[in-house]
Amino acid sequence: MKNTTIALLSLIAMTALGISAFSSKGEITKFHGNQVLNTGGSPSARTGAPGETTCTGCHTGSVVDGNAGINVLELSTGGNEYVPDDMNTLQLTFTEASNKNGFQLVVLNAAEEMAGSLVVTDAVNTKFVTSAILSREYVTHTAAGTSLNTWSFDWLAPATGGDVTFYVATNKTNSNSQNSGDVVYVSEHNFTAPDLADIAEEKEVSNNLTVGFQPGTNQLVLDFEVNGLNELSLNVTDLSGRSVYFKNMGIYTPGNYSDKVLLHKLETGIYNVTLFMNNKPYSGKVFVQ
To answer: What Å distances lie between residue 30 and 39, 59, 101, 212, 243, CA to CA?
Structure first.
């Protein structure tokens, strides 16, 4: 009983002084007041999303709006439109960073449920955490990742498409080995997907349209795939945008095609070739000589 009392008093003293202790696994845990420093990654549900707190649950300091260029979340493809049921790469940049920083993010749909799945691609600087209570997944920093202000990860988008929101919290620390004086920036980032009907229509003609030219026969060669019953037309323009050839190609049934189109004599140069499928354009370039 005496030994237990001494050990408890020692732990209380260590907590008050902010010194280190060894866990049963031999790992060092730093205590500061009643908080454990999260240099190795934030606990779950700290993004400021609906039903969540922010990093101020552990770090005392102010919460600031992180939108308007402070927390910058970008798709590798650019813009704010993602591809449903596809792996998308994203990069988070914290522009107000100090020499030690943290972050956590989650992605939810309009029903405030997980939208797709987050994937860690940089295990040195980022890691995965979950909240069983909220049924949500998060990406956050590791100890090594606190030296960065840019982190990247992948996201498997939901097959159903729809609008999604990434909730992000970043932490600008003052590196005083305390949980005080830090600044937390929260932000929301909205992404959307094309209408699923539009995506299906785009797939009716392969994006891998191949365009070639046979100088000996003065023929344009088009290789493409049609997955539905469609009306096709062809337009050839010069680099100034002037149409030099147009043809209504008629109705095409599903299948793979390699069509040859005889052109009248054109001047040597580069031309834009556009194949319209139900008035939707698919383009390529060809060198005529």
So the answer is: 10, 14, 18, 67, 72
